[in-house]
Amino acid sequence: MRINGPHGTTFTSSTSSARRSSGGGFTLDEMATTTETRAASAPRAAAGIDALLALQGIEEDPTERRRRSVARGKNALDLLDDLKIGMLAGTLDPVMVNRLRGAASDLKTSSGDPGLDQVLSEIELRVEVEIAKAAR
């Protein structure tokens, strides 16, 4: 089959030795080879459990750990701002309290930087205070 531009296709006559029957059906060329079929097999895992456990044991870069800690601190401060706006509007969303609890648990992870850990512990204390106030 040949495709000629945007006007569609044109069929060319085949010079193969395919035979036509008078019954309207067709038959395959006697020289045609059959393809070999193979049984389907389950996909293989790229890595075993041992490799995944080994990856978990790799110590992460200190700058990466610090960056993640800063991001967790910013997230907690954003949640405190959202809580303040909600309280000023007169609506205290119970979902917000759950999000604050999650942020407080995230802040417990050490960043490796004593100054940053001090700031994060102060943010954590403020989050815990707000959770206690919301629980009343």
TrEMBL record:
One of its GO terms (biological process) is bacterial-type flagellum organization. Residues 8-21 have a biased composition (Low complexity). Residues 1-28 are annotated as: Disordered. Signal peptide: none annotated. InterPro entries: Flagellar_assmbl_FliX_class2 (IPR019704). Transmembrane segments: none annotated. NCBIfam families: PRK12787.1-4. This is Flagellar assembly regulator FliX.
